[in-house]
Amino acid sequence: MIRFENVCFTYPFRPEPAVSNVSLRVRPGEVVLVTGASGCGKSTLVRLANGFARQHFQGRVSGRVLIGGRDNAERSVSDIARDLGTLLQEPEAQFFTLAVADELAVGHEWRGLDPGRITERIAQAAAEFGLSALLEQSTLSLSEGQKQKVALASILTMEPRALVLDEPTANLDPESTDDLARKLVELKAKGLAVLVSDHRLYWLRGVADRVLVMERGAVVAEGPFEMLDDAELRARHGLRQSSVDDPRCGLPALEDVRSGLADSLEADALSFGYGAGAPLFQNASLRLPAGRVVGLLGPNGAGKTTLAMLLTGLTAAKGARFSAQGERVRPSNLLRRSGIVLQNTDHQLHMRSVADEVHSAMRAAGGASACGGEAERRQRVQELLRLYGLDGLADRHPQSLSGGERQRLVVACGEAKEPDLLILDEPTSGLDGANMGLIAARLRARAEAGCCVVLISHDLELLGRVCHCALRLPLAHNSNTTKEAA
């Protein structure tokens, strides 16, 4: 169903091929996992399968990519999409409308389906993916995990014959990840061919029929999923763990570890909600300890990202009071004394070079990170780039970087501010094993320097490595439910 025959692809802005002599086949009723270190060529395979690489990136292509026996070179992207559904790593990049119900309907409308049938398809897809309560909401108000579910539901309601998924669990909580694994098993039983590109491996145990490991654009290993249990193979190719124990239950609650620790930030009378719905927070209080990594946990849509925006001043909470070291902090000053790494890296990168991004973050912070002369600041920039494995990319434009490189860059920018409070929203999304370990080490180092690090993450490997404690946010299921941070 999905077939590559000796395929090579080179982007116009890079001299070396991103994919080199790859041949693979995904048959109906089969799930194939493609993994490897960041930059190995996984995402390019997805772009080749759906036609984006040839038609939008305009690189050099040789070999053949066939979907359903038809050569992609002879088809438009829209024609390929009739047979092949694509889930991108950043789901909002594939939205066409601003309402959840409209997003589930738009593909059927383009194909001229009867309105009554469209309504039935929307209701069915919403029920299958737990989206019924969100149908009237704007896609802009959804959490990243909810956006991922909407995107996948909109694809599957079109009933494609094959599916390609690029980092599909990057924004999903563990429960939703389990749901996705079960959904893939169902799709296999229905005869769909599924190609998954992912760094996270554990969730595909019992789901993936075969695994391909890529390195520098080529397939260097192929076998059953159990092949990934070989620790030497994983270390050699920079792969993540093939099995992960859930560390969340073992993390002590935030309130149980605060005794004797200085507070990095205190928040009182914190209330906030969206529109006429139930408030996410109502008269909540929060004490964040210095020198600790706090895991901010909860299901998709629980308000984790919203809380991060409130604590850093990016969103205003009317009547809330903030203080640090016993002194009041104006909401307008929260952003200056804190750092935040957003889930979508494109929302934070706006300079012309990698080095300029870090330098800009340093200057914006003021205080200690901006002290010293220009030469001293430039030296600090180079040191941070080295720590994050970006020192060879200082002059590159941020948008020319791979997803993993951009992810490391925004975390480096957060550290450049040397804040008292550093909040990171899914900082290891799309990162391989080696770079996940690098981020873990940097977060621990910031905590040891006295910073409070708040980590919003569904990455079980990362949580188990770095967190001292957890703050858990439940999901409000009705209008009478609110959340109170400990």
From TrEMBL:
Coiled coil: none annotated. GO terms for molecular function: ATP binding; ATP hydrolysis activity; ATPase-coupled transmembrane transporter activity. Keywords: ATP-binding, Nucleotide-binding, Transport. The keyword Nucleotide-binding applies. GO terms for cellular component: ATP-binding cassette (ABC) transporter complex. PROSITE patterns: ABC_TRANSPORTER_2. SMART domains: AAA (SM00382). Residues 2-241, 265-486 form the ABC transporter domain. InterPro entries: AAA+_ATPase, ABC_transporter-like_ATP-bd, ABC_transpr_CbiO/EcfA_su, ECF_ABC_transporter_ATP-bd, P-loop_NTPase. This is Energy-coupling factor transport system ATP-binding protein.
